[in-house]
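Protein Entry — a single chain follows
Next Lines — sequence and tokenised fold
***
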Amino acid sequence: MAEVSTAHSPVIFDRALIRRRRLRAAALGSATFLLDRVADDLAERLSAVLRRFELAVDLGTPGEAVRVALSRLDSIGTIVAVDALTRTRPFVVADEEALPFGDAALDLAVSALALHHVNDLPGALVQIRRALKPDGLFVAALFGGETLTELRQSFAAAESDIEGGASPRVAPFADLRELGALLQRAGFALPVIDVERVCVRYDSVFGLMHDLRRMGATNALNARRRTPLRRATLLRMAEIYAREFADDDGRVRATFEIVWLSGWAPHPSQQQPLKPGTAKTRLADALGSREISAGDKAGG
């Protein structure tokens, strides 16, 4: 099986800064409404899987919401937190980009709203797949490309107006098609991707920015501008946001796109695709259409 090369992955995120921002968020009082929603959804998804997972790991999820939700499921045994910050027992202090597990060690790996901030997502997925036992399951939720699109557009327009050019302020979240390809390249069987868009409304964009700080989700891009945000730019951004993304009642919208990934470590018991030439029913017959050979013209 071909492996994904991870030798020259770009450093997009300042991982040390992300950890500091998470510590600051905990001190402020974390905003957990999205994590709580994802944790409950994850537990519901796993409750539909008719098998037991003796050893599960929670990869990089901030807080305890996922572990609390999964602890209610009879189908899951031990749940180990894997994070650079956690001290919730049982835990392993590690980064999602350098997992400390041997091959075929885990029955289940989950992650909630964390993997979009790894610099080497292809490499992380390969490590997760290797760490799973045959027929082990991986399920994760991460932010997709439409997340905070309103904030991104408003900042870009404001900086263009005030400063003559835009700087990166919102992370470049992954595209759905790219994520599907990454699962396959990492060697997962039966990969599935689905997406949910959550619209959160605020009295103003400043309420959104306050929540982002309390999520530990403010700008941690390596390419971020190091100089302080100018007050004129901030006020212009808020003006554009209110003009372009407000509802009739004056409240503004913020989009969070949550992408769900799942895949299984390969096992002979799993459903396999048919080999070419072994089909017993022609596709044309199944569709009720006339078959046209490659040498015929469509209009012939």
